[in-house]
Amino acid sequence: MNQNEEILSESSEAAENVAASQEAADATNENSLDSQVARLQAELAEQKDKFIRLYSEFENFRRRTAKEKLEMIQSGNEQLLKAFLAVADDFERAEKSFKDKNDKDLEGFFLIYNKFKKTLEQAGVKIMDLKQGSAFDADLQEAITQIPVADQSLKGKVVEVVENGYLLNEKVIRHAKVVVGS
C-alpha cells in the first residue's frame, strides 16, 4: 500500500502542478490579452490623431488654394483695370479741351466716355473724391510738387489735382497726383 499511496500522492501532486500551470497559463493569457488590448487601443488613438491632423491639413489646403485662386483672379482684373485708367485720363483731357464746343460729333464722344465710366464703375473702380483745399493724405495721394501759397489755410493742403486717383473695391490702385501748398 505504500506504493499505492506514493502513486496517489504523485498523481495528486501532478494534478496540482497541472492545475497550477493552467492557472498560470490562464493568467499569462489574460495578461497577454490585456497587453494586446492596451497596445491596440494606443494604436487606434494614434491613428485617430493622424487622421484628424491630416483632415485639418487638407481643409486648410483647400481654403488656402480657394483664396489664392480668388486673389489671382482679382489681381488679373486689377492689372487690366489699371491699363484702362490711362484711357480714362485721355477721355478726361479730351473732355476738358471740348468744354467750350457744342457739336453733334461731341455728343457721340460724350456717350462713349460716359459708357466707359459706367463700365469702370461696374467693375468696382471709383474715382477718389479730391477737391482743392482738402487735407493731404499720403496713403491716398502722391505729392508731385509743393508751391508757395498766399492763403495760410492752404498750407499742407491740396492746391491742385494733376491726375485723379482710383480705388478698386476700396483699395488704392492708383494714387492721386496732387500739388500741395507750402
What is the CATH-assigned architecture of the domain at 124-182? Roll
Q: Based on helices, strands and strand pairing, what is the structural class?
A: alpha+beta
CATH class of the domain at 124-182: Mainly Beta
Shape, principal axes of CA atoms: rod-shaped
Count of extended strands: 6
CATH homologous superfamily title of the domain at 124-182:
Head domain of nucleotide exchange factor GrpE
Q: Helical segment tally?
A: 2
Which regions are unreliable across 5 or more consecutive residues at pLDDT < 50? none
- CATH fold name of the domain at 124-182, please? Nucleotide Exchange Factor Grpe, Chain A, domain 2
Give a quick account of the main beta sheet: strands, pairing sense, barrel closure: 3 strands, antiparallel
The helix content, as a percent range, equals: 55-70%
Gap between N and C termini = 134 Å
Write down the Rg.
43 Å
Question: How would you describe what is shown here?
Answer:
The protein is α+β, with helices and mostly antiparallel strands and 182 residues long. It has a domain at 124-182: Nucleotide Exchange Factor Grpe, Chain A, domain 2. 63% of the residues lie in helices and 16% in strands. It has two helices and six strands. A three-stranded antiparallel sheet has the order 1-4-5. Strands 2-6-3 form a three-stranded mixed sheet, with no helix packed on it. Helix 1 packs antiparallel against helix 2 (104-122). The protein is rod-shaped, with a radius of gyration of 43 Å.
